[in-house]
Amino acid sequence: MNALAERFAPQNVGSIFIYTHEAHPGEYYPHLTSMEQKYRHAAALRDILGVTRPILLDALDGACHRAYGSMPNMTWIFNRAGIPIYKSDWSDHHSVANALEYFLDVTERRRGRERLAPFHVERLDYRNQDREAFYAGLARNGPKAVEEFRQAFG
Amino acid sequence: MDSDLLARYNYDAFTPEKFTPWMNFDQSPPLGERAPDFPLWPLTGGETTLSALWSTHTLLVVEFGSFT
Questions:
Q1: B68·A49 Cβ contact <8 A
Q2: How confident is the model over B5-43, as pLDDT tens digits?
Q3: Which domains does chain A have, with CATH numbers?
Q4: How many Cα atoms within 13 Å fall on the side-chain side of residue A149?
């Protein structure tokens, strides 16, 4: 997603990361109890996991996250008027790139005076599912996070 | 703030009874209609809003998530 942000930035596509709650709290990164702790965890997201996009913190009660469906790693795309034109319950850079290419083309067609009307599409996209890498990520949070996920999903 | 909400939202264990109540994507705002706005706090300091960000870009990609 970082590379995607850089690729589309010249076309005035902004990319941000909104910090939510801890999806898999563990001994090293426990559940959040204060904004100060939330800032520390968000800094780790930048410094350890390498998120280079601007990171913005949601309120401690997740007001923004909850209003948008509170999935652990979803992606939304908004136009300049604040209208969501894409939402996915999981983040996948292939899917987001595909959507951005389409919507930027729509912008160009509008500039060319083509008359366009919106319509709804439903589509099932596919994401990489590397269970080994996922468990390695959980281990960064602490053994508790690994065990709880294993108990929930095997 | 509502302390009960804070505790439930910031659950202390990834167990189905604690995380499934938050999986509400099917109730999220619809596409094509003006979305709700919220304050946000940049990691670098200060305060802004989601609308301040979407209004300055042709398109704005927003990923939600956390370290864990």
A1: no
A2: 999 999 999 999 999 999 999 999 999 999 999 999 999
A3: 2-153 (3.40.30)
A4: 18
Exposure b/e, B22-59, CB count within 10 A at least 16 = b: beeeeebbebeeebebbbbbebeeeeeebbebbeebbb
Q: Which of residues 18-37 of A touch B (CB under 8 A)?
A: 18-26, 29-33, 35
Q: Does B18 touch chain A (CB under 8 A)?
A: no
Please state at what angle helix A131-141 crosses helix A143-153, rounded to 10 degrees.
Answer: 140
| Domain positions in chain B | 3-54
d(CA B49, CA B59): 16
Quote ipTM for the complex.
0.97
